[in-house]
């Protein structure tokens, strides 16, 4: 699947599984139909790509109030893709897509699949010492985004998160004090 395919999927309507204000399986309009593509990038499935994804989102979402949250969430999602899916294997890739529409910015991260496993928020904090520093990524995504979810794309998984974004008129306002 190329950037064009992921970009098309990003603009293609409601997700299969969602969490957040619309509840699990939510079908809010999101940044689907009528959304505009802000940018997309495909990166190799290696650790240094986490930083590259952060830089891409920081640059592409420059000026949006949610930019810091977008940067943190893309970091978590790309790290998860590289750690927990085939994206982290030799030749693996991760695709990051940003779209905007309907008062939302949607971040999507497509991985190479995890043999049917899907992203989820862990029920409780890790109990094993070796896991003490892991297992919190999707909690961060859930806390910072208005909604999040995923959809299967063949063997791949596309994880998405939506963030409120003011319309162009609101972004252009300045405090004139008049």
Strands, helices and their partners?
Layout: H1 3-10, E1 17-20, E2 36-44, H2 48-60, H3 67-84, E3 93-101, E4 104-111, H4 137-144, E5 147-153, E6 156-164, H5 168-172
Antiparallel strand pairs: 1-5, 2-3, 3-4, 4-6, 5-6
Organism: Actinomadura meyerae
GO molecular function: protein serine/threonine kinase activity
Biased composition (Low complexity): 8-19
Task: State the gist of this model.
The chain has a domain at 45-164: 2-Layer Sandwich (Heat Shock Protein 90), CATH 3.30.565. It is an alpha+beta fold and 178 residues long.
Describe the structure.
Pfam families: HATPase_c_2. Residues 20-29 have a biased composition (Gly residues). The protein is of the alpha+beta class and 178 residues long. It has a domain at 45-164: Heat Shock Protein 90. Helices cover 29% and strands 26% of the residues. The protein contains five helices and six strands. A six-stranded antiparallel beta sheet has the order 1-5-6-4-3-2, sandwiched between helices. α2 packs antiparallel against α3 (67-84). The longest helix is centred in the middle third of the chain and has 18 residues, at 67-84. It is globular and about 40 Å long. Residues 1-17, 20-29 and 169-178 have low confidence and may be disordered.
């Amino acid at each position: 699947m190329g950037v064009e395919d992921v970009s098309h999927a990003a603009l293609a309507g409601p997700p299969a599984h969602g969490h957040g204000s619309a509840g699990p399986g939510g079908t809010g309009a999101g940044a689907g139909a009528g959304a505009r593509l802000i940018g997309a990038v495909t990166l190799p499935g290696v650790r240094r790509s986490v930083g590259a994804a952060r830089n891409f989102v920081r640059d592409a979402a420059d000026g949006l109030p949610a930019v810091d949250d977008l940067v943190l969430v893309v970091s978590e999602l790309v790290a998860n893709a590289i750690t927990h899916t085939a994206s982290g294997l030799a030749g693996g890739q991760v695709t990051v897509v940003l779209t905007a529409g309907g008062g939302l910015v949607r971040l999507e991260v497509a991985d190479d699949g995890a043999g049917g496993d899907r992203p989820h928020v862990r029920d409780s904090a890790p109990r094993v010492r070796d896991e003490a520093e892991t297992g919190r990524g999707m909690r961060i995504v859930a806390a910072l985004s208005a909604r999040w979810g995923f959809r299967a794309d063949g063997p791949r998984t596309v994880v998405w998160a939506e963030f409120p974004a003011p319309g162009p008129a609101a972004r252009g306002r300045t405090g004139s004090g008049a």
